[in-house]
Amino acid sequence: MRTRVKICGITRPEDAAAAVEAGADAIGLVFYQPSPRAISLSRAAQIIHNLPPFVTAVGLFVNAAADEVAEVLKSVPLDLLQFHGDESPAFCAGQGRPYIKAVRMRPGVDLAEQDRLYHSAQGLLLDSYQPGKPGGTGATFDWERIPASMGSRIILAGGLSPDNVEDAIRQSSPYAVDVSGGVEREKGIKDAEKIRAFMRGVERANR
């Protein structure tokens, strides 16, 4: 099965276009103001308006209140929500959209238990753990920690780049991979050639 790809932290229409042209299945828009990749509602709506059919628009939130999520959804027609904080299963399931739940791979985390708790999620996004940072650390974690039986539920993130994505997929067989900083020339600004190189790495792993 082909590994799906999400390019996250899109802030410019031209970067969304580069991701789509390279073959990405989804783009991620960050609605978390402390992030250098945070985006305004008007810019997010503009980017989604220009997406072709069958490219999923994902909105990333970190411990946002329900009214904040609702306010975004009024202006931005997101297909999928990504919760990257300490949101409860009930909160995640109650926002009116399908969702994925990020799990920071801190020592001792029980992925099977997280999967049971967030059974209503479309999948679990596994990210590196760094105290005080909800994501975007640029660091990898030990991919061997992912149980082989859970591959179809896993979106692999955390420090992926054109240089390591092929190995990451071969080792962990995730349903999808998620990249942000690994395809940037500076924070929040994507590099079209790095996106294409990342997609080539995914293609090699799928041969």
Automatic annotation (TrEMBL):
Q: Which segments does the entry list as coiled coil?
A: none
Q: Which family does it belong to?
A: Belongs to the TrpF family.
This protein's species is Sedimenticola thiotaurini
Q: Which domain of life is it from?
A: Bacteria
| SUPFAM superfamilies for the chain | Ribulose-phoshate binding barrel
Q: In which pathway does it act?
A: Amino-acid biosynthesis; L-tryptophan biosynthesis; L-tryptophan from chorismate: step 3/5
Reactions it catalyzes: N-(5-phospho-beta-D-ribosyl)anthranilate = 1-(2-carboxyphenylamino)-1-deoxy-D-ribulose 5-phosphate
Q: What is its EC number?
A: 5.3.1.24
Question: What are the protein's UniProt keywords?
Answer: Amino-acid biosynthesis, Aromatic amino acid biosynthesis, Isomerase, Tryptophan biosynthesis
Which protein are we looking at? N-(5'-phosphoribosyl)anthranilate isomerase
| Gene from which the chain derives | trpF
**GO-annotated molecular function:** phosphoribosylanthranilate isomerase activity
GO BP: L-tryptophan biosynthetic process
The N-(5'phosphoribosyl) anthranilate isomerase (PRAI) domain covers 5-199
The record's listing under CDD domains reads: PRAI (cd00405)
Which InterPro entries does this chain map to? Answer: Aldolase_TIM, PRAI_dom, RibuloseP-bd_barrel, TrpF_fam
Pfam families in the record, alphabetically? PRAI
